[in-house]
Design goal:
Blueprint lengths: L9 H5 L13 E6 L4 E6 L4 E14 L2 E7 L2 E5 L4 E16 L15 H4 L12 E2 L2 H16 L4 H18 L2 H7 L8 H10 L6 H7 L4 H12 L3 H19 L4 H7 L5 H12 L3 H12 L1
Antiparallel strand pairs: 1-6, 2-6, 3-4, 3-5, 3-6, 5-7
Helix pairs in contact: 3-4, 7-8
C-alpha cells in the first residue's frame, strides 16, 4: 500500500543541487523557542515577513518597543532594521525572505500603493496584520512540507509567489500599505538601495558613489523618496539606535556615546534631550520602573 504522507526519495531530494541547505537559501524557515527565551538583537540583512504560528513574544523593532505579538499575527521587518524579542510562551515562528519584485498579480504591484492609498492615515512604520484563514491554511500546508524536509529552492520560490497572491486576494490595499510601509515608495529600487547600504558608508558622498550618482542627483532623489534630507534621515536612524542601546542594553552611557561618535558626555546628553525630551539616565530609569 502506498504511503499517503511523508517524502518519497528523501535522500535523493536532499542531495539535489537545488536543495536549499543554508539559512540564506531557504526562503521559508521555522524556528522554535521556549518560554523565557530571549531572541538577541539582530540586524535584519534582508527584509522578512515573520508569522507567529504559536505562542507570543514581545518584540522590539527599530524605534518601536514592547510590541506584544500573539499567535495568528504576522509582522514585516525591513532590511537593516535592528530587532530583538522576549518569548512569553512556547513559540513557533515562520520566516519568509521577502522579495519586493514578487508580483501580487499581473495588474498590481507594491509600487502602485503610494498612488492609491493615503499615506497620511498610516501613523507608524510597524503595523502587524492578522493571519487570515486562507493564509493560515497555506501556512498549515507549508509547515507540514517543511517538517517533511521538502526544501527544494523552486518549491520555496513558488510558495512565496502563492503567498503574494494570497496577500493580494485577502487583504485590502490600505492594510498592505500599512504592513509594507517601511519600504514603500514610487521609487522602491532606490529606497531598497538606501536601506541596504546606509550603514556601510561614512557619508552621503560615499553612498552616492555606490549608487553611481552625483551627490546632487542623489540628494534630490533621496528627498523626493524619503521626504527629508539624507542628513536629517540619518540623524533619526542614529537616534533610534541610541534609544535602543539605552533602553535595551546595559552598556554604560560612555560606551554608547563613544560607539555613536560623540566627543563628550555633555553633547551626548544634549542630543538625547533634543530627540527624546529626556537625559540618558532619565530614559533608563523609565525602563527600570517598568521592569520593577
Amino acid at each position: 500500500m502506498c504511503k499517503t504522507t511523508g517524502l518519497f526519495y528523501a535522500n535523493e531530494h536532499m542531495s539535489c543541487s537545488e536543495y536549499a541547505k543554508s539559512h540564506e537559501e531557504r526562503i521559508f524557515e521555522r524556528f522554535s523557542f521556549q518560554r523565557g527565551d530571549v531572541i538577541p538583537e539582530t540586524l535584519i540583512t534582508h527584509s522578512i515577513i515573520v508569522f507567529v504560528w504559536k505562542g507570543a513574544i514581545i518584540a522590539q523593532c527599530g524605534p518601536f518597543f514592547d510590541n506584544r505579538i500573539h499567535a495568528g499575527t504576522m509582522l514585516f521587518l525591513p532590511n537593516n532594521c535592528i530587532c530583538s524579542a522576549k518569548v512569553l510562551s512556547d513559540t513557533v515562528l515562520l520566516r519568509c525572505f521577502f522579495d519586493k519584485d514578487t508580483q501580487m498579480c499581473t495588474r498590481f504591484m507594491l509600487e502602485s500603493l503610494p498612488k492609491v492609498v493615503n499615506f497620511t492615515s498610516i501613523h507608524r512604520a510597524f503595523n502587524p496584520l492578522p493571519i487570515r484563514e486562507r493564509v493560515r491554511q497555506f501556512l498549515v500546508n507549508l509547515y507540514a512540507c517543511l517538517n517533511d524536509g521538502l526544501g527544494c529552492y523552486h518549491f520555496h520560490t513558488m510558495k512565496r509567489q502563492e503567498l503574494a497572491l494570497l496577500f493580494r486576494g485577502y487583504y485590502s490595499r490600505e492594510e498592505l500599505a500599512a504592513f509594507f510601509y517601511p519600504i514603500l515608495s514610487e521609487d522602491m529600487s532606490f529606497k531598497e538601495f538606501v536601506l541596504s547600504h546606509f550603514r556601510k558608508v561614512e557619508n552621503v558622498e560615499k553612498l552616492a558613489e555606490l549608487a553611481n550618482l552625483s551627490p546632487t542627483t542623489f540628494n534630490r532623489r533621496f528627498k523626493k523618496t524619503f521626504g527629508i534630507s539624507f542628513a536629517q534621515w540619518l540623524e533619526k536612524r542614529k537616534a533610534e539606535d541610541i534609544l535602543r542601546d539605552i533602553r535595551m542594553t546595559d552598556k554604560t552611557f560612555s560606551e554608547i556615546a563613544d560607539a555613536h561618535g560623540f566627543s563628550s558626555a555633555a553633547y551626548f546628553t544634549t542630543f538625547c534631550k533634543r530627540h527624546f525630551g529626556k537625559s540618558p539616565s532619565e530614559i533608563r530609569s523609565l525602563r527600570s520602573e517598568k521592569n520593577g
